[in-house]
């Protein structure tokens, strides 16, 4: 299982995903450009020392990422999905794709993903924090494959 952050806008959210990646031992792909200068200094500020132990790969663009992507499905977390996280069946080779905090992903990325899932929420709230959603999706995926 992998996690993919598509053009993250907020350094602290990417830092939380780096920490998630390090703590659960899953690789993290970062699709640039980011909404902030992505430097070692920025990563250290947002991810603390977890950046040193996380398995991260930076990609210049979505197209570059696709050129290097190996086997497995792309599973997009999106508010536009009809299927929920709790009803989805993960596979060990899945990559969970998280969109930008401000805009999600463009239609071309949405269409390229194999599956689209959302968190079921009550009330009129739009969505949770992207890093929190990533943590829930990764945790559920790892639970299902009995990591």
Describe the structure.
With 147 residues, the protein is of the alpha/beta class. It has one domain: Alpha/beta knot, CATH 3.40.1280.10. The protein has helices spanning 11-24, 40-47, 62-68, 107-112, 130-144, and strands at 2-6, 28-31, 56-59, 74-77, 83-84, 95-98, 115-118. A 7-stranded parallel sheet has the order 3-2-1-6-4-7-5. Strand 1, helix 1 (11-24) and strand 2 (28-31) form a beta-alpha-beta unit. Helix 1 (11-24) packs across helix 2 and helix 1 (11-24) packs parallel to helix 5 (130-144). The radius of gyration is 14 Å and the shape is globular. The protein starts with a strand and ends with a helix.
Map the helices and strands.
Blueprint: E1 2-6, H1 11-24, E2 28-31, H2 40-47, E3 56-59, H3 62-68, E4 74-77, E5 83-84, E6 95-98, H4 107-112, E7 115-118, H5 130-144
Parallel strand pairs: 1-2, 1-6, 2-3, 4-6, 4-7, 5-7
Helix pairs in contact: 1-2, 1-5
- Shape descriptor reads globular
Summing up helix and strand content along with how strands pair, one would put the structural category as alpha/beta
Strand order of the largest sheet: 3-2-1-6-4-7-5
CATH top level class name: Alpha Beta
For the biggest sheet, the summary is: 7 strands, parallel
């Amino acid at each position: 299982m992998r996690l993919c952050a598509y053009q993250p806008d907020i350094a602290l959210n990417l830092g939380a995903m780096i920490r998630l990646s390090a703590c659960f031992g899953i690789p993290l792909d970062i699709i640039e450009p980011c909404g902030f200068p992505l430097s070692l200094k920025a990563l250290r500020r947002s991810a603390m020392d977890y950046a040193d132990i996380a398995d991260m790969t930076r990609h210049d663009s979505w197209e570059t990422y696709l050129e290097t992507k190996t086997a497995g499905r792309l599973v997009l977390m999106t508010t536009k999905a009809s299927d929920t996280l709790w009803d989805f069946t993960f596979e060990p080779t899945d990559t969970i794709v998280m969109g930008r905090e401000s805009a999600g992903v463009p239609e071309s990325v949405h269409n390229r993903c194999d599956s689209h899932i959302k968190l079921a929420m009550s009330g009129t709230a739009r969505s949770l924090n992207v890093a929190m959603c990533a943590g829930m999706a990764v945790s559920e995926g790892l639970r299902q494959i009995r990591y």
